[in-house]
Design goal:
Blueprint: H1 2-12, H2 15-32, E1 44-46, E2 49-51, E3 55-57, H3 68-72, E4 78-84, E5 97-100, E6 105-108, H4 117-126, E7 132-137, H5 148-159, E8 165-169, H6 184-205, E9 211-215, H7 221-233, E10 238-241, E11 262-265, H8 269-283, E12 289-292, H9 298-306, E13 311-314, H10 316-321, H11 324-334
Parallel strand pairs: 3-4, 3-13, 4-7, 7-8, 8-9, 9-10, 10-12, 12-13
Antiparallel strand pairs: 1-2, 5-6, 6-11
Helix pairs in contact: 5-6, 6-7, 7-8, 9-11
The structure holds flavin mononucleotide.
Length: about 350
């Protein structure tokens, strides 16, 4: 309701200025108000973690972990911050974020603008939040693809002590060639090295931090099957479906539809849910699926769970619907049954 009133004001600014204002407001709300507890609506246990409800914040809204306590007040069952890279980097030149209001969609080509992993870890340590915190990691733009693994390993080691889980982002369309890490042989190598690092870090810190792989929606069914195999083989703890899309068919002809970058919001819903459904079927509970893409209301969130997801993340929907979206989705997914476990599905 309140958001309906202030939305025209926010939308009168360019999207990135509105975003910066929202992060600053959330930062101060979090500092000035007492710690928040998420609504406990049918908790879900996956990756060895207990999620108080099924609705989380997707990566990219709070890249540096500056607004954790403010975001926690919205009622999320978990937050994912980042993508963070080992070193600070400015990202692509502005403008790099566009609204397509008639489609309830965004196009972004931010390019992993962030203050670097050390700044993020310091922000996490300063936060009051005690809930589940995923940290999404990526590679610096200046790191050659041949050395990409080193960036993931460096970021993983730095965030390990403060993360509930770590998401490996190989699916942003805005870092040149990043998505090639989703191809079988490259993915195999990356996952093997990260799992090796995970064992060492678990021993060193006395705590196992799960790894989730975040993938693109722009994959064919064979590529998705190959990814399912890799997730199983490497005992990856979860998969996040999906990042933004390069497809533009649903927004053709609209202002900004030709901007380069990833499309998110309502037009992504069906394509993203299709990836969720295929992976959930193939993985049959062995690796849980976290769904993101086009959730604009409670019914969309339910559709993700019905497709086999254990948890749902939202991002663009917050821009168009405001913070009330979170509690609406929490309520809509609260009474839904757990996805089948492998033993139940045979
Ligand atoms: C402005 C913007 C920035 C994003 N940045 C990231 C990012 O840094 N890392 C990431 O994994 N996904 C990023 N995403 C993708 C979202 O996490 C999410 O996967 C995608 O937008 C689909 O969900 P939605 O339709 O609810 O927005 C970004 C999306 C937007 C709109």
């Amino acid at each position: 309701m309140f958001y309906d009133l202030i939305r025209p004001l926010l939308f009168s600014f360019d999207p990135e200025t509105a975003h910066e204002a929202a992060i600053a407001a959330l930062h101060w709300a979090g500092r000035l108000l007492s710690a928040a507890r998420p609504p406990e609506a049918s908790p879900v246990e996956i990756m060895g973690l207990r999620f108080p409800n099924r609705i989380g914040l997707a990566a990219g809204l709070d890249k540096n972990g500056e607004a954790i306590d403010g975001l926690a007040r919205m009622g999320f069952g978990f937050l994912e911050i980042g993508t963070v890279t080992p070193r600070a980097q400015p990202g692509n030149p502005r403008p790099r974020l566009f609204r397509l209001p008639e489609a309830r969609a965004l196009i972004n080509r931010m390019g992993f603008n962030n203050y670097g992993v050390n700044a993020l870890v310091a922000n996490v340590k300063a936060a009051k939040y005690k809930g589940i915190l995923g940290i999404n990691i990526g590679k610096n733009m200046g790191t050659p693809m041949a050395r990409a693994t080193e960036d993931y390993l460096a970021a993983f080691a730095e965030v390990y002590e403060v993360a509930s889980y770590v998401a490996i982002n190989v699916s942003s369309p805005n870092t040149k060639n990043l998505r090639q890490l989703q191809e079988a042989s490259e993915l195999d190598q990356l996952l093997a090295r990260l799992k090796e690092a995970q064992s060492q870090l678990a021993e060193q810190h006395g705590r196992y931090v799960p790894l989730a792989l975040k993938i693109a929606p722009d994959l064919d069914t064979v590529e998705i099957s190959d990814i399912a195999d890799a997730l199983r083989r490497h005992l990856i703890d979860a998969v996040i479906t999906t990042n933004t899309t390069l497809a533009r068919d649903k927004v053709a002809g609209m202002p900004h539809s030709d901007e380069m970058g990833g499309l998110s919001g309502a037009p992504l819903l069906d394509a993203s849910t299709a990836v969720t459904r295929q992976l959930a079927q193939e993985l049959a509970g062995e690796v849980p699926v976290i769904a993101a893409g086009g959730v604009l209301d409670g019914a969309d969130a339910r559709a993700k769970i019905e497709a086999g997801a254990s948890l749902v993340q939202v991002m663009s929907g917050l821009v168009f619907r405001g913070p009330g979206l979170v509690r609406e989705c929490v309520r809509a997914t609260a009474a839904m049954p757990e996805p089948e476990s492998p033993s139940e599905s045979g």
